[in-house]
Amino acid sequence: MKLYIKNMVCDRCVLVISNIMQELQFQPTSIILGEVDLSDQILSNNDINKIKTAIEPLGFELLSNKKQALIEQIKMTLIQLIQSNDSLETVKLSDFLSKNINHDYHSLSHLFSSTEGLTIEKYFIHLKVERIKELVVYNEINLTEISYRLGYSSLAHLSAQFKQVTGMTPTAFKKLRDSKQRLPLDKI
């Protein structure tokens, strides 16, 4: 049995869910972003309610609907892609999602747009902008390297997209030195 959990956006979230599952004495075979695999274990309604009660105060949500679970899987797959240190310049989003989620991209795109109110591409742009903010705040690499790493064709393209989403240039954002301008990934 697999459980799908909303708002698992980082390795710490996986650790928190892992600890909760241990406390509740469940033995999952794997826990990854957005998903707990309990293999052949069958959960009663009481078990599911225990899990819900344990995770909801921490900002997580157990998904019961397959469509919600698929949308969460799309989001988690894109978050993992953004957080990887691989260059995104060679990644074709439609092929990447189809391969990693084992669904036709057209159906994924339609489901995501109709449920979330924005396209997968726009959501991905918002994720990239939040990653840019993070990298700018940490000041470890320059904007040219950030643009390369996140798959932009140029620094001008990165700056234009950043300004379109935030209303300011990356340089203006950098001068703010205000990490409160960043959004948690589960709020995008």
Description:
It is a single chain. This protein has 188 residues and is an alpha+beta fold. It has two domains: 2-64, 2-Layer Sandwich (Alpha-Beta Plaits); 68-187, Homeodomain-like (Arc Repressor Mutant, subunit A), CATH 1.10.10. The protein has nine helices and four strands, in the order βαββαβααααααα. The protein has helices at 11-23, 45-55, 66-83, 93-101, 105-116, 120-138, 143-149, 155-166, 170-176; strands at residues 2-6, 30-32, 35-37, 61-63. The protein has a four-stranded antiparallel β-sheet, sandwiched between helices. Helix 6 (120-138) crosses helix 8. The longest helix has 19 residues, at 120-138. It is globular and about 55 Å long. The chain starts with a strand and ends in a 12-residue tail after the last helix. The mean pLDDT is 88.
In short:
This protein has 9 helices and 4 strands; from the N terminus they run βαββαβααααααα. With 188 residues, the chain is α+β, with helices and mostly antiparallel strands. Strands 2-3-1-4 form a 4-stranded antiparallel beta sheet, sandwiched between helices.
Structural domain tally: 2
Can you give the mean pLDDT?
A: 88
Number of helices: 9
- Rg value: 18 Å
Biggest β-sheet: count, sense, barrel? 4 strands, antiparallel
Uncertain runs are none
Proper CATH architecture of the largest domain: Orthogonal Bundle
Decide which structural class fits the backbone.
Answer: alpha+beta
Strand-residue fraction? 5-15%
H/E topology pattern: EHEEHEHHHHHHH
Topology-level CATH name of the largest domain: Arc Repressor Mutant, subunit A
Alpha-carbon distance between the two ends? 29 Å
- Enumerate the strands of the largest sheet in spatial order, edge to edge or round the barrel: 2-3-1-4
What is the number of E strands? 4
Tell me the CATH superfamily of the largest domain.
Homeodomain-like
CATH class of the largest domain: Mainly Alpha
Shape verdict: globular
Percent helix range? 55-70%
